[in-house]
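Same chain as my last thread, 71 residues:
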Amino acid sequence: MKVTIEQTEKLLKGDQSFSQLGFALMLTRLRTLYVKQPSESTLKSCMGEINMYLEKYPVIMNADYAIIAKM
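reply #2:
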């Protein structure tokens, strides 16, 4: 699964709760970064990092895919 730019923006602006601690921690860090610099380039950078995480850990992210897919 790959997130789109729109899904990335919703993840960064939302307050969703995820079961995977590593993913939740990464999102907290990315949200802080995006709040400090809400630009298109920051959004694309965050999208790349999220997609890289999802590609690296597909098995442990199964429970959280449903939340992301609804965005």
